[in-house]
Amino acid sequence: MWQYILKRLLLMIPTLFGAAILIFFLLRLIPGDVCELKMAGAGLYVDQEQIDICRTNLGLEQPMIIQFWDFVSGFVTFDLGTSMWTGKAITYEIALRFELSLQVAIMATLTAVLIAIPLGTISAVRQNTWIDYFVRAFSIAGIAIPSFWLGIMIILGLLIFTQAWFGTPWMPPIEYTPIWVDPWANLSQLIWPAVATGWRYSAVATRMTRSALLEVLREDYIRTARAKGLMEKLIINRHALKNSMLPVVTVLGIEFAFLMGGLVVTEQVFNLNGLGKLFVESVLNQDFTLTQALVMLVVTIAVFTNFVVDICYAWLDPRIRYA
Amino acid sequence: MVTTSEVRVEAQFEELADKRPFWSVVGEFARKQPLGSFGMGIVVLMIFASAFATILSPYDPEANAFEHMLTPPNLQFLLGTDQFGRDILTRIIYGARTALFVGFTAAFIGATVGLVLGVASAFFGGRFDLIFQRIMDVLMAFPLIILALAVVSIFGTGIQNVIIAITIPFIPRCARVVRSQALAIREIPYIDAARANGFSNARIIMRHMVPNVMAPFLIMLTAFVGQAILLEASLSYLGLGVQEPIPAWGLMLQGGAEEYVESAPWVAIWPGVAISLAVFGFNLFGDAVRDTLDPKLRSQ
Amino acid sequence: MKFPRLKFAVPLAAGLALSFGMAGTAHAVKMGGVLSFVVGSKIPSYDGHIEGTFGMIHPIRPFYSTLIRVNPDNPQSPTDFVCDLCEGSVPKGADGFKTYVFKIRQDVKFHDGTPLTADDITATFKKIIFPPKGAVSARKAFFKMVDSVESTGKYEVTFKLKFPSGSFIPSVAMPFNFVYAKKDLDKHGYAWHQKNINGSGAFSFVQHQPGSFVEGKKYAGYHHKGKPYLDGYKAISAPKMALRLQAIRGDRAAIEFRGFPPKARDDLVKALGDKITVQESDWNCILLATPNQARKPFDDPRVRKALSLALDRWGGSKYLAKIAIVKTVGGVVFPGHPLAATKEELSKLTGYGTDVEANRKEARRLLKEAGHPNLKVDFNNRGVDQPYKVVGTWLVDQWKQIGVSAEQHVNPSPVFYDKLRKKSDFDVSIDFNCQSVVNPIADVTKYLGSAGNNYGGYKDEKLEEIYGRLLRAGTEAEQRKIMREYETRAIGEMAHLIPTLWWYKINPHRSYVKGWKIAPSHYLNQHLDQVWLDK
Question: What is the reported pTM?
């Protein structure tokens, strides 16, 4: 087992290194220049000399290999440097958004669980009935509806209905308040994106619950339980559900990792100052240092989650360790 | 020279192919997979709309007609017009073309390249497989939209580049699934038998391995089409996708549609409905394909 | 087509009436309250001397004072400047308009308590005009006429010019010229103000959450006594237009200072009636189409003229004004300025004639004559909806009508600039001329092939010669005459740049926001010391 863990741990290194190479060179292939954009973005003329000064100050005039070394050695020693766009420490920029992204990810995952487990269970128990079809259609609709469109419709709906019912239009707050400062303001902002993404992310988990449960329901011990005359509800709740949760938890775990940095579009619609929005901004600003750090953060979270999932499986199923 | 072992293997494949008349197959599919059939209906409708776009719609999807600017739905313009006076129904019909083109091209190229790489990686094994696996790990670790965003930023916007941006993240996803399936097949003795008979690598891959990974390939392919349509719409929404005046659903939702969402809701509602329906259809259809092809699920 | 016209007229009338009503209530100023407003762009740094975006001006400008500023009670005037940190009225210039002496107020303190003296002003303008090697200054070029700036007393600053120039005072009045404390510059260096704030403006800095908001609170020691009226403000970042609109509708923000498209104004007025006040103004920005003369066949004036002739400017003005933040047909000079062309003068310019069919027939003839009846154009545009993409889509359609097929490439800003400036990789590109203080003689340098911000890739000696005369022209009548000559050469005969429409600024805001007056630029009149809330 320890040998397996060590092997998997070592395999993370080339993945992370590869990701570092990929993002470093991808970024430098993007046409444009952070200095040009900063100084001349609003249509002013700035002479090349000024732009060169700015580039030198940001270290962009150094040879590629040195820039790459700075980036990799900084990453390894947790010294991420400063954002090329704001000049502030990257750890500060990320910390500022991390809390919001984490909270949305947790709330969305909770929503997904609340949707997926009951619906998946009903769907499995009533397999191939109209309830089953309805549940499946509902969860697939969650994937199919574009999140940005859903977001616009939610905000519009809130504005129209509150105006119709209460006389004054209401919409969620547009700036973030930490939950311990004002839980009401915090939740009234984040509940909407959490529900919208939770619905979306429940789709795979619903399907997983359904098929895992179907598999378990055919097992011998369930048949025994039925033969004993136990109530169907009890069988499902106490025996079947518990034993079919592993793949569901796995799927939710992996999705949670992607929720941390992947809410690129949803964060735009709800004006959430999270990691996804920061990523889009930093790419569009040509802010190399910040984009690199963000990508490495997301990649590390994803790689690490995969690692944990693999270890769990190996622990549960010894055959995997020797494959 | 055909050996007995190969004949036996090919006979196994034969069993998979159905010899019943076409309509009875469709009928059974519809009975067993009502959702899948509904999805297929949407897919067929989309293909029909994009094939006959020029006949179905009387208007030019691109020409400005300011005298009809932001007309609400009426008999002349069934779904209304947008801020440039262009008929929305016409743009949705032509938009189906764009969506299908992007969706199918990206899904097909992505899945095919993934198939080839996955099978080759499993077949050759060793160092090639190890290095290839690490590259796939790297690509898989990037969220789909982030990779697409980076690619579009480099190559610029426009249909071809959007397709490239969507295709690249698909490759590792398909390659990985195909590889694991192919690895299992490689262990089956008949591959050794084929080797022992002196067949070329190419022949073994094409005749023995590829047909056996067709099921996951087709499952991935159908799943990708819906994802590609949605990704294209998301990229267009971020301003990095297909460009005006080309009719595309995501583009129709961007910019103007957001400004007019209240005063002219038809501008924002219909393209959203079109995207949702299309992705819904492809997903339902894809699920049905998965249920039919995946032997583990089939028994349920 | 009864529908759009009806919808358009009603809110406009209501809005204008409301904004006129505002002036009458000015005496009953209410103190207190916090103003929330939304900003659609980002803050690259806090240093006004190196930045040029409204994304920095709107949230940061209220922390700083400037030497002089556009009269906040009359921001529409291009010539009405008043003192902010100086005393009395703005100096007229002595010694043949080559010496300007500013008396500095003695009651000004920076937010950290340091008293402000002439040395601070001098150090500030030295940073702007004569930056040392290694320091950036974005508007150095505006001060080419300045020979020296020195403190000639504890509270007196003297500018000496190399040659008289009418664009000196407008340049000093630019809202980007934040006055910094000399001790900060001496102690922390020239880069300190990019990340730190110590001004003498109406508000002092509280906090900035990058990507989210900037917060300021009333500065009790502000030198304009009795002001500011507000207790503070919050500038909330909201990159999506739809969300900015919804924020005002849902009262999460009271105002947005850049400008909304007309339809958005109508929506707000329809939904909220008299809770919304609308202010409108011509805007000192124009969108241009720049043909790349380094590429064939755009070196041929006939081709460029054809591209200009294809545009139905008068018709476009009517319709685009409903969906985009553009409206006014004009030449090279800000419409409404004394030096601007009249409608009659305009209609003689290439592509400004009112008979569109005749124009387009002529365009097709010119293209045929030039040997390019089916011209294909690689058209570079900027990925910003308002107004770039809307006008871009309109241009593509207009050109199609003379047989020119343009493929539009909408690029995110960095890629857009890369193609426009560095690589010159386009046939025709959108470009814009957007200035803060209206200053036509300085603003029209954009059309000179030699100008740094001109990307047409041409040299036109004759145009340079005309500009030389324009710069030296003494009287307004003479300036006006030469300006017509310049205009005809630049956009008529040669069609170096192809003007589309001038922007039109529309600011619908919550009616309880009082004391803010719209200016012809989204950079101007943003110190917020006169704003109050009627709640």
Answer: 0.82
